[in-house]
């Protein structure tokens, strides 16, 4: 524990605040809180306690700055800014965007920096420097106490709260007036522990160096999941073991092995489909033509709505329009928008009469070109990845497929307003969480192109094998003289030495939440949200009000406990870890806490 400014934190007259989880979201809440306190010129003594699992305050587990450089972001540098234009202004004048911060440390052209994908460690350094700036400029009335520990439980004591952690018993900390929980995936049960049991089953790959270091060279490895986490695991076991990727003149990559890699890695997943990769080039600037702001507002006013009946048809039409707008342009035609869908259909029919060889838009086959296949072979997957890479490099202005897939990124913000706090009826809510959430992530929030090229290079080198990607399951069995067996269709079987779970845990009813969230449920301080609109569905998230405050078992709002970020998923959608605007409970919380302290100060004076 580190103390700043003074050592009066156990004084009962001090207003004590806790922020649990100091990744980006905890940092944002801290920044807004001290900005509010300074702007109000509060003289009341305040102690802010920051609880983080490790020393990477501001970066957290995901962006810790000791990660290897091959673990990179999946969106471009220009989208990253840990500062906000909100008032009151930050308490420091050094509020550089990530690109401006990078420019201050390199001679690279700004345009290149904007469109590049930085390492997560580099982003972590930026966040930690921002956090340090706030530390250095704290008002004298604020004591800052940093705890490197994991909070395990919270209990209510009158109108205040008692925190217990791995390093602090109940009585070693003051009682807290306000608590904000920004625990990220840790709250959903993610295991970021530094010291893991080194066995053949790896349930969580981070930190990669420690979690995967015991996998033997020449081992046969099964990887459950084929998303961003799978890519991290594959790169950790190849590039992270001194293997090298080299680019050819055509831009293709080849892999030079070190001999320290596994013999083969076999990814397998529910859909068996790769993510659509991305470049850092700017999105097209076309507006939404069909799911307009007016239509979104109308849907929001009709809550609860059915996703498949009331929203999905419009999404499909929006994607179809984007697809044909680009396809027409590629062939020197203009696709004219009209709210009359019959007119749009007539244009499309006439176009395909003139160009019968061009691929028509079919929603289902666009999402899954192997729709009716129960299994895929290695060559089919490799060819499809090449197609996706080609579409990504063309960009949404030149690739119909890319244009259609990129449409969801434009829709998602408005959709969040509909989805949040039970805006979908219960059957739709369940369907979206269990099916469409992953689908839209796959087509819209994929890895950088360079990472997908690396996966393709490893596939061509025979180190990554896609034979079991679809329709396979893993069982623990020594029947083939190994840890387990990966079973595919057509009686395919593969002996496996190590099994990696590359799926990040999310809130859901069947998942056991982290110990902290479990304690809130057990003590009645929280309850799980239940969507009872036209049915019943429990997404697994703790119930909160529209300001993020936890709702207790008895239905009363816990004024002192607020959730922010990933812990709210299920009631909110798309809690981008670095976004300062999406589902921004931090600013509401900071203003409310500062106002409460201000009121207390007036009473005492």
From TrEMBL:
One Pfam family it belongs to: NAD_binding_9
Organism domain of life: Bacteria
Domain FAD-dependent urate hydroxylase HpyO/Asp monooxygenase CreE-like FAD/NAD(P)-binding: 18-185
Classification via PANTHER family: BLR0577 PROTEIN
Protein name as annotated: FAD(NAD)-dependent oxidoreductase
Organism name: Echinicola pacifica
Source taxonomy: Bacteria, Pseudomonadati, Bacteroidota, Cytophagia, Cytophagales
